[in-house]
Amino acid sequence: MRSKTGNAALLKRAITSSLAAVGLKETEIKFVGNKIEVPVCGVTVAPSLENGKRVWKAEGTCSVMRLEDAFENEFTQQLFTVPLEDDLLLARKLALHIAVTKVDASLDSVVQEAAGRLQR
Predict the structure, then answer these.
(1) Cβ neighbours of residue 76 closer than 8 Å, sequence gap 6 or more
(2) What's the total number of domains in the chain?
(3) For 87, which DSSP code?
(4) Is residue 2 in some structural domain?
(5) pTM (2 decimals)?
(6) Is the pLDDT of residue 12 over 80?
(7) In a domain, 44, yes or no
(8) Three-state secondary-structure class, residue 80
(9) What SS3 class is residue 109?
(10) Which of 23, 66, 78, 79 is most buried by a 10 A CB count?
(11) Helices and strands counted in the chain (H then E)
C-alpha cells in the first residue's frame, strides 16, 4: 500500500481511524498484501488501473434473494475509485460509504418491523 508520503503505516492508521469513527473495530478490517478488506460490510479495496491511471478501486459484494424460490444471487459492484496517491480521500470515502450503508440497514429494519406490525 502506498500513501502520499510513501508510508503504508500512515495509510493503515487513516483507514482504521476513519472506520472506527463509524463503529468498526480494527479487528474487522483486514490488510492483505496491497488489499484492504472489510468482510463484515462486503467491501474490498485494491489498487487498479483505470483509463491508464493508477487508482484505489472499492468494490462491494452483496446477495439478493429471489422471491420465487429464495435462491440468493451474489453480485459485485464498483463503489468508487480514488487516485492511488490520495490515501486520506480513500479513508474518508470508505468510511462514508460504510456509514451510509449502516444507516440504510438500520432504517430497513425499522421499515420491516413496522410492516410486520401491520400484518398482525
Answers:
(1) 59, 60, 61
(2) 1
(3) H
(4) no
(5) 0.82
(6) yes
(7) yes
(8) strand
(9) helix
(10) 79
(11) 2, 5
